[in-house]
Amino acid sequence: MVDDVFYMKLALQEAFKALDKDEIPIGAIVVCGSKVIAKAHNLTETLCDASAHAEMQAFTAASNYLGSKYLKDCTLYVTLEPCAMCAGAAYWTQIDRVVFGAYDKKHINVDKKTLYHPKTQLVGGVLEDECASVISDYFKNKR
Amino acid sequence: MVDDVFYMKLALQEAFKALDKDEIPIGAIVVCGSKVIAKAHNLTETLCDASAHAEMQAFTAASNYLGSKYLKDCTLYVTLEPCAMCAGAAYWTQIDRVVFGAYDKKHINVDKKTLYHPKTQLVGGVLEDECASVISDYFKNKR
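Output (structure tokens, whole complex):
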């Protein structure tokens, strides 16, 4: 749990990089063993690509680093609960753990837990307040 | 419906390109109005990326072509029913229509219909037999 907080802080740093680009501030990292092998942040506006979520880029970068489609012994840390697309991508990677910060309160009609691979452990609410406030502050400033 | 068959044949051509690369043969195209603006096929092995499904690449290419995250007036044609990841990606694009060939009989535990944007029309079973047999033949040859 101490480790989860440590790594979530790195994911939060990525969220702030997204904020600097006027993107919805969501960050993600992939850790293999204890090594950070991928860092990414939301780039949907910059890349003009609705699928350029932090998680998707982190998965692609981690697979590239490992030379494997499967993210064995890996954990995804992401500041917001993954959407259906990203949960579905996590399924294909068979990643060991997905740890997220803030809960997604917008898309609650879909039971996203069913989308993960059965062997993936899901943990929510790590640094929840910090992860949630960076996003809510962003939208407040947009109004 | 005649148009759907016409465009699905183009998606099938993409599936055969995947087959030539010893990839699971799934192809996709995106049509905007009546113009084909993206063609793609499954490249998960070639790119060593579990998210490199035909649909994901087709969405990214189509957005790049249109200069928009949103695929307005567009239809995705794909030879196999999209997985949760790809349905989730379709949600973000708000694409008008998703037309698929073969039904995915493997991942029936998830109600994928709920993952699409409410305004997306979903049509299945276009050239179903042709789309299914290219995949089943691939797996038969692997055994």
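Residues 2-20 of chain B form the longest helix (19 residues).
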